UniProtKB/TrEMBL annotation:
Class of the enzyme per the UniProt entry, highest EC level: lyase
Enzyme Commission number: 4.1.1.111
Record protein name field: siroheme decarboxylase
Catalytic activity entry: siroheme + 2 H(+) = 12,18-didecarboxysiroheme + 2 CO2
Source organism of this protein record: Balneatrix alpica
Pathway field: Porphyrin-containing compound metabolism
Subunit note: Probably forms a complex composed of NirD, NirL, NirG and NirH. All proteins are required for the total conversion of siroheme to didecarboxysiroheme.
Length: 152
């Protein structure tokens, strides 16, 4: 079990208040600061510290990629000794995100997005050629909304 230092009240406030909806404005951090009664620099410093603590995976919009282009879930069957190298290679491909290892024979999973189905297929072929590994292409058939907010 790893040790996680306690979060400050402001860090808890940031996570609780903005984990599901960031302000949609030209200056979202300034708006967050105004709402929390602190400076924009303080908000940014707290977010950097949360990131350093591993309490934050990302800050940004979650977009419905099917409405913006094309996307698919991909799984690769990677020999364990090559997992780090293949993960780095896959992560270098434009449009790859959510790259993570799983305990399964198909042990490296990621989401691939592109502006068109043709570009998506080209990226899949690039990964296929570069890795020479068994691949599952698992395009979404029906979308579901998952509430990923967690009470603190």
């Amino acid at each position: 079990m790893s040790y996680s230092p306690p979060l400050s009240p402001r860090q808890q406030q940031l996570l609780a208040r903005y984990q599901q909806q960031l302000p949609c404005s030209a200056h979202p951090y300034a708006q967050m600061a105004a709402e929390l009664g602190c400076s924009e620099a303080e908000v940014l410093a707290e977010l950097r510290q949360l990131d350093a603590l591993g309490a934050l995976s990302r800050v940004g919009a979650v977009l419905e990629s099917r409405k913006l282009g094309a996307s698919t879930l991909v799984a690769l069957q990677v020999p364990p000794e090559r997992l780090d190298a293949i993960a780095a290679l896959v992560s270098s491909v434009a449009g790859v995100n959510h790259n993570y290892a799983r305990e399964h024979r198909y042990n490296l999973w990621f989401v691939l997005t592109a502006v068109s189905q043709q570009e998506l297929q080209q990226s899949l072929e690039q990964i296929r050629q570069q890795t020479q590994l068994p691949m599952l292409n698992l395009p979404m058939i029906r979308g579901y909304h998952l509430n990923l907010g967690f009470p603190l």
